[in-house]
Write a structure and sequence with these properties.
Low-confidence stretches: 1-25, 124-131
Largest sheet: 8 strands, antiparallel
Number of strands: 8
Strand content: 25-35%
CATH class of the largest domain: Mainly Beta
Shape: globular
CATH architecture of the largest domain: Sandwich
Order of helices and strands: HHHHHEEEEEEEE
Oligomer: single chain
Distance between the termini: 76 Å
Number of domains: 2
């Protein structure tokens, strides 16, 4: 019996150090979600956030938003603290974060394609889509670094000249690699013939960001533009801005 215990102990010691070695190589704290788990959680969080963005009236109460996101965390058997701490770690390990989001985009595209296929095969499933228009911008995906930000500001503008009546204008993009201490301020402007409607908000963290401005049908819209202001920047900061769109419903 003693010999068996000695053999088991000798086998367990190398396994322990081997496990510790790979954990150290990955430089990942134990509380951080694995790549696969983070992908699954982020996918559901993005879907939930899309639901919130598309139903302003339903989710105008912050408690409803929290309930929906908490339901996602409960599904994956984690809490908000687990998610937030993992998000901070992945923000500092941008290569892993970008790969995870690339997989999420692939899953989202596949889900959308599958839904379209089902709708084509079953016409009764078709849902009337809300009419919309996308305005051209310089780029839908790009990196931002300190040297790209004169006076800490990134300016954007819809590459078109408008002469149209009112509507609901939407600014939307996703951001990755944002340091946890930085809260960029976003300004979105809709210029009409007699006035300019300005809305400001701050980016609270990595993920999807949306902003909406409603214009009366009696007003003519001439220009769509805005900026992202970074109150402080770091020389090693590299942001990945993806799916940058300006649209009208």
């Amino acid at each position: 019996m003693k010999i068996r215990k000695i053999v088991k102990t000798k086998l367990l010691i190398p396994l322990f150090f081997l496990s510790a070695f790979f954990t150290a190589c990955d430089n990942r704290p134990f509380h951080v979600l694995s790549d696969k788990k983070m992908e699954a959680v982020l996918f559901d969080v993005y879907i939930a956030q899309t639901e919130i963005d598309n139903n302003h009236a339903v989710f105008s109460d912050s408690a409803r938003k929290a309930d929906l996101l908490n339901a996602v965390f409960q599904k994956h058997k984690i809490n908000k603290a687990d998610f937030d701490s993992s998000l901070v770690w992945y923000s500092d390990n941008l290569d892993k974060y970008i790969k995870i989001n690339e997989k999420i985009v692939e899953r989202y595209v596949k889900m959308t394609d599958d839904l379209k296929t089902q709708q084509n095969e079953n016409p009764e499933m078709l849902i009337a889509e809300e009419p919309g228009m996308l305005y051209p911008v310089n780029s839908k995906a790009f990196f931002l670094q300190k040297e790209d930000l004169p006076q800490n500001v990134y300016a954007f503008e819809a590459d078109t000249i408008l002469q149209e009546s009112g509507g609901t204008y939407n600014l939307r993009f996703s951001v990755l690699g944002l340091p946890s201490k930085i809260r960029p301020a976003v300004t979105f402007c809709v210029q009409c013939q007699d006035t300019t409607i300005v809305r400001r908000d701050s980016i609270q963290g990595n993920g999807f960001f949306t902003m909406t401005i409603g214009i009366s049908p009696m007003k003519k819209v001439n220009r769509l533009y805005g900026s992202v202001y970074f109150p402080e920047t770091s020389s090693d900061m590299t942001l990945f801005i993806n799916r940058f769109t300006i649209s009208k419903k």
